[in-house]
Amino acid sequence: MKKITFxxxxxxxxxxxxxxxxxxxxDSNTSPAYFVVMHVDGSAKYLNAEGxxxxxxxxxxxxxxxxxLTLNKKAQVQLSWKNQSVTLIKKGxxxxxxxxxxxxxxxxxxxxxxxxxxxxxxxxxxxxDEDGERKSGTAQHDTTGGSxxxxxxxxxxIMPIGGVVPLNSITFxxxxxxxxxxxRINVYKDSGKPAIFSAKTNNNSFSLDVSxxxxxxxxxxxxxxxxxSDPKIKSEKTNIIFTDKDQDKEVLRGMQSAREYSYSDPWLxxxxxxxxxxxxxxxxxxxxxxxxxLIEFSDNLTIKKMYAMFLTNHGxxxxxxxxxx
Length: 325
Fold this sequence. Notes:
Blueprint: H1 13-22, H2 27-30, E1 34-41, E2 44-47, E3 54-56, E4 62-64, E5 68-71, E6 76-81, E7 84-88, E8 92-95, H3 96-105, H4 115-124, E9 156-159, E10 164-166, E11 169-175, E12 183-188, E13 197-201, E14 205-209, E15 220-227, E16 238-243, H5 247-256, H6 259-262, H7 266-279, H8 283-296, H9 301-313, H10 320-324
Helix pairs in contact: 4-9, 5-7, 7-8, 8-9
């Protein structure tokens, strides 16, 4: 059996604070911490702290800092906790509380900063209260988005929500109710001037091959949506920057050459790809990658939580609840 080695990562408190501010995290999302099962080779089980529930361990599971793991002979389990990772390789029973203490007290000789693990750790506690129970009735999980979100009196942009957009076919999407009048989508070179492109549709989305428009690369454009019969009902203008159609592929090629990527399970590779696109401000491409993850790994809670956190941190918390269902 191929032995798997992984880097143990650590980060100083100031960088954690910067990250938390950037992603608008609060204590309820980061405390307590959770373990993310990144890889399982062989047979292993998780037993909760009460001893009432036993589960076969699968990659993508999220576990609280309680309970135990039991590894059978030749089993290997890689766990992520906050911004660090650990690989269990010996047969036996492991206390997750003890493993968390070991990681909290470990000081690697040469720190390796893996901001993907930081986000993974933040996402593991997303939507959980201090007792590890799923939050309910909170604004970030309100599928209606609160009063006026996506109704017959308002239109809200979904995608693209800003950032860099490759110059190829993309699908604009929004929330709103038009009854029988339909919508009109507009693309502007200048937010204060007439649209350079406009089209009517009865749907809440519109696909457009942007390469057919006369747009300048790496320049800022804007788009919005209005009620076709009542232009006063319209979304806010959202800025986007069109770039080379292969820019997203270049971002992914750079990330895919990393050692951490080559050792990752398929679902984890997909999350690393989404994270790399997000870091490059390619939010539309990152969203498409997350949606791909929901389809290919429909029962993976880690993917759901990372996607829900992505939506919330970019003003689309109204959609996060449906992702977590």
